[in-house]
Task: inverse folding
């Protein structure tokens, strides 16, 4: 009897591998708990962020809550002391004086900083005040004692002693006159409602 040449024919059939159990799925309540925990963690993490934002915005919120303006602060004006009445020449010659004020925003305070300059003039016992900035391009005007007028060194704008333009003029308006506090003036001090206006505009537009 001849032996079979096929080795598989004589060997017993190997048993099939056992079936692996299907992966167990986590219970639904575990999934819901995980989602809920994630949501709570996200909400809790917002509290430190919100607290930090409140601390950062607190100065602004307090400023808005007050909503009060001091005397002469309408339209961006600030009532500031610029000189004494005795410092103004009695003959009507204009004198330029610097304007010093505290610069303050929501977080910082810079005391006693120059914010501009004004010309003061005694006109018949009445003190007149003009912003020293030329309304044309924002240069500082100078007083010409020879011509008895104000002159801008940048673009030849000229102004009379009462601030009116000498035509023709590149300036779109007269010099910006500022209000003098009469009550303070009666006490010998010159306080003005100081405000800087945008140059290059026909009508006065106060800067913030």
Result:
């Amino acid at each position: 009897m001849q032996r079979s040449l096929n080795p598989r024919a004589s060997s017993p059939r190997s048993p099939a591998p056992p079936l692996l159990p299907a992966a167990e799925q986590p219970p639904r309540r575990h999934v819901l708990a995980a989602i809920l925990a994630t949501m709570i963690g996200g909400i809790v993490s917002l509290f430190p962020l919100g607290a930090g934002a409140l601390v950062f915005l607190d100065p602004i919120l307090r400023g808005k809550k007050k909503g009060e303006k001091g005397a002469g602060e309408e339209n961006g004006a600030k009532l500031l002391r610029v000189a004494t009445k005795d410092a103004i020449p009695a003959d009507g010659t204009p004198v330029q004086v610097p304007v010093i004020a505290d610069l303050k925003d929501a977080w910082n305070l810079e005391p006693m900083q120059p914010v501009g300059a004004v010309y003061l003039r005694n006109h018949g016992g009445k003190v007149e005040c003009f912003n020293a900035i030329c309304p044309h391009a924002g240069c500082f005007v100078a007083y010409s004692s020879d011509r008895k007028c104000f002159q801008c060194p940048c673009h030849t704008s000229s102004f009379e002693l009462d601030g009116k333009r000498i035509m023709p003029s590149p300036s779109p308006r007269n010099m910006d006159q500022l209000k003098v506090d009469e009550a303070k003036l009666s006490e010998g001090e010159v306080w003005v409602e100081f405000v800087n206006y945008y140059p290059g505009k026909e009508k006065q537009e106060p800067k913030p």
